[in-house]
Write a structure and sequence with these properties.
This protein has 325 residues and is an alpha/beta fold. Helices cover 35% and strands 13% of the residues. Helix 2 crosses helix 13, helix 7 packs parallel to helix 8 and helix 9 runs parallel beside helix 10. One of its GO terms (molecular function) is ATP binding. Keywords: ATP-binding, Nucleotide-binding. Pfam families: ParA. This is MinD/ParA family protein.
């Protein structure tokens, strides 16, 4: 049966673990991309059977109540920290309409989720090799149909990951910020949820709102809190205490605190260079915090005094950064 342009579907395959290493080139406009799907096609899309099941690997979703808190930076650098520990990581850019993961990693995919959902590519066709051996499922930018993906297609997307999980130990989802249905659905599918906030009152207020909305859904875990861009450990702890206090009082929910990432000038510098700060500035305070977070994700617990952090680097503070780094 001929396929209609713009038909909303996900192409999956019975083959597993097949990843195409593609020549990195600048993303350009393709014929038919961005066209609106016809009403007839939209009416037919719910008759398509989704893949049988979701991936069986552990899934961690990283989300936030508001944008601009550094969520995607956390995801990309955490993926690299985990990869250095021998974990095979697959990163899903879940912000389908406003992709950023590929930009922060300095890669430019030939195909992305627009081609898998609105086009005729399979999910394994679009997976890219990223830095340090991580793999990336890139999203698109500026495509309204993807930004407003319904729950059915979101479920199809999640299940399609099963076709690329053979060489994967852990799936990291960079979920959209906010309490929209797509963001909540992606987070709800995870085994662990990390809600990122900053010390700004608007940010941790929205983080609480995100936790509140998530707590009203069936979840596999209690959402955990991570404070980014903190000026000190004490400031981060105070932010976490306030969110935990409100969640306990009004939701009767014990919110785990998964730590903090210090405000660090190396982060915006790395963003401009389109490189992960863990690679560009491995001894920076932010990198030290990401290594500590990786320990938490791997279940290694907090480091002891004098105990080296994950990988070849020892946990550092701003005062112990080597000269010239």
């Amino acid at each position: 049966m001929p396929r209609e342009p713009g038909d909303l579907r996900l192409m999956t395959s019975t083959k597993t673990g097949v990843v195409s290493k593609r020549r990195v080139r600048e993303r350009g406009a393709k014929g038919g991309r961005g066209q609106k799907t016809s009403r007839a096609t939209l009416a037919r899309r719910h008759t398509e059977a989704p893949p049988e099941s979701r991936p069986r690997r552990k899934v961690i979703a990283v989300t936030s109540g508001k944008g601009g808190v550094g969520k995607t930076n956390i995801v990309t650098n955490l993926a690299i920290a985990l990869a250095r520990q021998g974990t095979r990581v697959l990163v899903l850019d879940g912000d389908l309409g406003l992709a950023n993961v590929d930009l922060l990693l300095g890669i430019s995919p030939q195909y992305d989720l627009q081609d898998a959902i609105l086009g005729d590519r399979r999910i394994e066709d679009i997976v890219l090799e990223g830095p340090e051996g991580i793999r990336v499922v890139p999203a698109s930018s500026g495509v309204e149909e993807l930004a407003n993906l319904d729950e059915y297609r979101t479920e199809c997307l999640l299940r399609s990951l099963a076709s690329v999980e053979a060489d994967t130990d852990l799936i990291l989802i960079d979920a959209p910020s906010g309490i929209g249905s797509h963001a909540v659905s992606l987070s709800q599918a995870a085994d662990e949820i990390i809600v990122v906030t900053t010390p700004e009152p608007t940010a941790f207020s929205d983080a609480y709102a995100m936790i509140k909305v998530l707590s009203q859904r069936p979840l596999r875990c209690t959402p955990a809190l991570l404070v980014n861009q903190a000026n000190s450990e004490n400031e981060a702890s105070e932010v976490a205490r306030r969110v935990q206090s409100v969640a306990k009082r009004f939701l009767n929910l014990e919110v785990p605190y998964w730590g903090f990432v210090l405000a660090d000038e190396s982060v915006p510098k790395s963003v401009i260079r389109q490189e992960p700060f863990l690679t560009t500035y491995p001894y920076s305070p932010a990198s030290s915090c990401i290594l500590r977070l990786a320990r938490r994700v791997l279940g290694q617990g907090p480091e002891k005094k004098g105990d080296p952090g994950p990988g070849p680097y020892r946990l550092v503070t701003p005062d112990t950064i080597p000269e010239g780094v």
